[in-house]
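I have a small job for you when you get a moment. Can you supply me with one protein entry, sequence and fold together? It will help me judge whether the discrete encoding reads sensibly. Write everything out right here, beneath this request:
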Amino acid sequence: MLSTPLQAGNLQAELVDEQGQPLANAVLTLRSATGSVAEPGTAIMDQRSQQFAPTVLAVRSGTSVAFPNSDNIRHHVYSFSLAKRFELRLYQGTPSAPVVFDSPGVVVLGCNIHDWMVGYIYVTDDPWFAVSDEHGRVTLDQLPAGSYTASLWHPQAPGMLPQAAGELQLTEAAKQQRFTVAMQAPAAQAAPSAPASAFGDAFKKARDAAQ
């Protein structure tokens, strides 16, 4: 549930799961009733200690994302996701050209050398968005007063699909408040008979959600 009204200009949110525990790496997006449009920008998805950093990156459609490799070994980054298929073959340092993510959706990232490396890029057309920190906190600054529709996404959400989070009204006279959004935990699954690829599991969830 969303609590309203909230202070215009600085929206603070706490994202939790259905047990009320803080939910890191969750995406909160807002779109206004006036249909505001924001320009795409640039972003960075790094590789550090053989992990994607950040684990979840949210970007606006049309954003150019650089993929620097801060490790002292080579990585081979790729995605088969419908929202963006691409491949950056074995490299160190930073590729000369960024990758443009021009379609909304979930892009699951993997490394062809290190199967445990999994990252996510959430591409949205909504003008305002943020990813929760380790405490489940999100802050969105400089929001104009008005009506907004909120949505949520998390890699472990059922079907890896975005979820509607209701409407909220921001007014200049309102005090700053917090709201909590509960997300459904995925159903428990039986352990596989053989070790599975983390990327393969994540990609399958995203592929099934897009069908």
Summary: The mean pLDDT is 82. Residues 198-210 form the longest helix (13 residues).
